[in-house]
Amino acid sequence: MSTTHEEITLAAQEEIPVVDLRKLIDANLYMPFPFQRNPHASEAAAGVEEWLSTWGLTDEPAVAAMISYTRPAELAAYNSPTMDSGLLQIMANQIAYQFIFDDRAEDVGRHTPGRLLPMLCESIAILRDGQAPTTPLGAALADLHRQVQERCTPAQAARWAWSSREYVHGLLYEAVAQTHPGSVGSGLCRSIRSLIAGVEPFYPLCEAAQPCELTPEEIHHPVIRRLSRLSADAAVWIPDLFSAVKEQRAGGVINLALAYQRTHRCSLPVAVTLATRHINSTIREFEELYGELRPELSPSGVGYVEGMAGWIRGCYSWSRTVPRYADTMAAPAVL
What we know:
about 325 residues; mainly alpha; Farnesyl Diphosphate Synthase; Sesquiterpene cyclase; Isoprenoid_synthase_dom_sf
C-alpha cells in the first residue's frame, strides 16, 4: 500500500467539491458491472426471517433490528441476480447468519477475547467434524451446512466448508488485532481483512448455480484462483468505504479506509479516496484477467466468474443504500 505525498495531496484537492462521503465514493469508484437484482428478493427476505426465527437467532430485539437495517436478502439479490430461488435462499440465509456471527464475535472479541474461543471452536467442529451443535448459533450453522450439502456436489460442499472454516479462524486474528490496534499496519490489516471477508464461502454456491460442475483443472487454474482473491477483496473493501464512519465511531480497526487513515495520518475523506484508488486497481486487474481467460473457459466457468463479478457489483449497490451504513451519507466529504 505505497502512497506518495503527491497522491495524498491530490486526493485532498479532489475531495473538496463533493458534499458527503457517499457522493465522494460514487464519484471515484470504478464500477464496470451494471446494476442487477434477482426477482426472488422478496421471497428470500421472507425466508430469511422465518429461518432466523426457527433457530431463535432473532429472539433478541437488537439482533432482529440489526437484520432489519442490514437487509441480507437484498445483498444476496444484488450479488446473484440470475440465481434460482432455492440457491438464493441458501445464500441469503448464510449472509444473515454471518452478519449475526460476525457482530457477536467482534463484540465478544473486543471485550473478552477468551470467551471467543468456545464460539469459534464449536463452528470448526461442526464444519470439519460434523459434530452436534450446542448453541443456537451452532444449530443454525449445522442447518446451513445441511442445506449446502443437499444442494451442492460433494466437492462444492467441501470447498464451502473449507472457506467457511478459514473465515471462522480469521475472526480470532481480528480479536487479537483489536486488543493492540496501534500495532496493526496497513499490510496486516489487509491480510486479516481477507480472512474475515466471508465472501469466498459463497463462491461454491455460484458454482452450484452453473449447468455443470467445474473440472479440477478449471477450478484450480492459477488465474481463476487469482480472480477469486481479487473479487473477494474488492467485494469486501467496497463496504469498508461505506462503513468507515460507523467503524471509526465504534473503534474498529480492520477496515481498508481506516488503515489508510492510520498509515498516512490524513482525514477520513482523503483516506477513503486513497482506498478507492486501491479498489479501482483491483477491479481493473480482475476485469483484464477475466477478459484474457474468458475464451478458454467452459460455459460453467464463465458463469462461475460472472458470479464473482456479481459480488463486486452487488456489494456496491447494497452498500450505497443499506441503513447499516447510513452514517456515510451524513458524513461531510471535507473534514
